[in-house]
């Protein structure tokens, strides 16, 4: 039952984050959809870590070069997701209010992704 509660909480977090992203794009004051390119970063973020889990799963050591590279790539993706709205706002392609909404959505979405890997990433009988 704890898994269902965690999954519902993570789903709610993802919905709230996507709501902030949508508000940053679709409100009549802003009405520009350039911030939706952040969705690519949401999709790309967990990929390096998932690949490194499959490749370096059989290693007993706490750290490996594969896992460190995955963390580095994931950090680059997350920083890019936070940088894109700021660059768009500085170039006056979007308003600063839309940038703030997108950055809030980024924070919620990436916290949700992190929460997913914390809850479901362990190798016990509760994991996927």
TrEMBL record:
<keyword id="KW-1133">Transmembrane helix</keyword>
<dbReference type="GO" id="GO:0016020">
    <property type="term" value="C:membrane"/>
</dbReference>
<feature type="transmembrane region" description="Helical">
    <location>
        <begin position="94"/>
        <end position="120"/>
    </location>
</feature>
<comment type="function">
    <text>Negatively regulates growth hormone (GH) receptor cell surface expression in liver. May play a role in liver resistance to GH during periods of reduced nutrient availability.</text>
</comment>
<feature type="transmembrane region" description="Helical">
    <location>
        <begin position="68"/>
        <end position="88"/>
    </location>
</feature>
<comment type="similarity">
    <text>Belongs to the OB-RGRP/VPS55 family.</text>
</comment>
<feature type="transmembrane region" description="Helical">
    <location>
        <begin position="36"/>
        <end position="56"/>
    </location>
</feature>
<dbReference type="InterPro" id="IPR007262">
    <property type="entry name" value="Vps55/LEPROT"/>
</dbReference>
<dbReference type="GO" id="GO:0005768">
    <property type="term" value="C:endosome"/>
</dbReference>
<dbReference type="GO" id="GO:0032511">
    <property type="term" value="P:late endosome to vacuole transport via multivesicular body sorting pathway"/>
</dbReference>
<protein>
    <recommendedName>
        <fullName>Leptin receptor overlapping transcript-like 1</fullName>
    </recommendedName>
</protein>
<dbReference type="GO" id="GO:0060400">
    <property type="term" value="P:negative regulation of growth hormone receptor signaling pathway"/>
</dbReference>
<keyword id="KW-0472">Membrane</keyword>
<keyword id="KW-0812">Transmembrane</keyword>
<dbReference type="Pfam" id="PF04133">
    <property type="entry name" value="Vps55"/>
</dbReference>
């Amino acid at each position: 039952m704890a898994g269902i509660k965690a999954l519902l909480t993570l789903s709610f977090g993802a919905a709230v984050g996507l709501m902030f992203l949508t508000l940053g794009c679709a409100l009549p004051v802003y009405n520009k959809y350039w911030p939706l390119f952040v969705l690519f970063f949401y999709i790309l973020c967990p990929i390096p870590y998932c690949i490194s889990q499959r490749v370096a799963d059989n290693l007993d050591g706490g750290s490996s070069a594969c896992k460190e590279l995955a963390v580095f790539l994931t950090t680059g993706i997350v920083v890019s997701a936070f940088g894109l709205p700021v660059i768009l706002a500085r170039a006056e392609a979007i308003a600063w209010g839309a940038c703030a909404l997108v950055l809030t959505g980024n924070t919620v979405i990436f916290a949700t992704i992190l929460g997913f890997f914390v809850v479901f990433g362990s190798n016990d009988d509760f994991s996927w």
